[in-house]
Write a structure and sequence with these properties.
globular
Length: about 130
């Protein structure tokens, strides 16, 4: 959320495979190029969210502030609302390929990104304080 404009944003990148630290670092570098000012990221305790590559990136970019959710706390993660909406949107489809599924998912996420009310709902559905 932009603190000045109080506008919500959704940034995503899809991969056909499980991502690793290099993909996470590339995504974060892209996010830092796109956004001005401090970037505060709250994420889960996944192994890809830690380690030397992430620490190095954070040291190089002091405006990047990384915080972790507690051990298992999906109720705090607004991302759960994003995926819940995506699953509802895609529930009755039957894509013929992984590429078609990715197209449908990308289309849904772009629509969601354009809806401040839907993004707000994802945040409010979480138990994050102050949202």
């Amino acid at each position: 959320m932009s603190p000045r404009r109080r506008r919500y944003g959704l940034y995503f990148q899809l991969f056909p495979h499980n991502i690793r630290q290099p993909e996470v670092c590339a995504f974060l570098r892209g996010l830092l190029r796109h956004l001005r000012g401090p970037v505060v990221l709250v994420w889960d305790n996944g192994a890809i969210h830690g380690g030397e590559p992430i620490r190095t990136l954070q040291a190089r970019h002091p405006r990047l502030h990384l915080y972790r959710f507690p051990g298992y706390a999906p109720e705090l993660n607004p991302d759960e609302g994003v995926w819940q909406q995506a699953k509802r949107s895609l529930a009755n489809g039957r894509p013929d390929s992984q590429q078609e599924l990715a197209r449908h998912l990308r289309s849904h996420l772009k629509r969601l990104r354009g809806s401040q009310s839907h993004l707000r709902a994802c945040l409010r559905a979480s138990d994050l304080p102050g949202v």
